[in-house]
Amino acid sequence: MYKKILVPLDGSERSTKALFHSVSLAQKYTAKITLMHVVPNLPPYVNTAVDRLGHIPQSIFDELMRNGKDMLDQYVSSISDKNIDTDKFIVMGQPADEILEKANQENYDLIVIGSRGLGEIKGYIMGSVSNRVSRHAPCPVLIVR
Ligand SMILES: Nc1ncnc2c1ncn2[C@@H]1O[C@H](COP(=O)(O)OP(=O)(O)O)[C@@H](O)[C@H]1O
Ligand SMILES: [Mg+2]
After folding, report:
1. In which band, very low, low, confident or very high, does the pLDDT at 50 lie, cut at 50, 70 and 90?
2. pTM score of the predicted model
3. Apex CA 51: angle with CA 128 and CA 90, to 5°?
4. Is residue 54 left, alpha or beta, with left meaning phi > 0 and alpha meaning psi from -120 to 50?
């Protein structure tokens, strides 16, 4: 039923929980999982680091990508004993847009995502990324609380 599962990860507890749900589904359905991280575009308060053309200096870009890759590597090793076909994907951009684009372009048949992430604010049930992804995804979305 599910052959390609996309798992967006931001380093939060909830996304780690989502990963374990995806692992269990991947084992059941012999699916392949893609661990994906989007390095968010720099927020406005660090705009001083952006040059006149609006480019992020290479050193900052490199560091952000390196941190993201380290995070994905840790996730991959945390499930390395599970014998699942796994790959990883990292990109910089708006998280929801990038996740939706990936799901669309590569025909994933399930997205497993946390209900909240790193920016958790008490009182809200869903974060903005999980909210947008679940509303616009081309495939079923499992939201893990
Ligand atoms: N930068 C990101 N890269 C990949 N996945 C993300 C990213 N940000 C959020 N997610 C996914 O979306 C889920 C919900 O996070 P989000 O909507 O950002 O909630 P919050 O507002 O609590 O941070 C996370 O558990 C994770 O699965
Ligand atoms: Mg967030």
Report:
1. low
2. 0.93
3. 40
4. left
CA distances from 28 to 19, 48, 83, 114, 138 (A): 14, 49, 12, 20, 22
Angle value at C-alpha 130, between 58 and 16, nearest 5 degrees:
75
Question: How far does the centroid of ligand 1 lie from the alpha carbon of residue 49, in Å?
Answer: 25
How many angstroms separate the alpha carbon of residue 12 from the centre of ligand 1?
8
pLDDT digits (tens, 9 = 90+) for 81-140: 999 999 999 999 999 999 999 999 999 999 999 999 999 888 788 999 999 999 999 999
* Closest C-alpha to 37, from 58, 59, 11, 61: 11
Query: Six-digit token pair at 134?
Result: 């679940």
18 lines ligand 1 (CB under 6 A): yes
4-39+66-144, CATH topology level: Rossmann fold (3.40.50)
Taking the C-alpha atoms of residue 16 and residue 115, their distance in angstroms, rounded to an integer, is 11
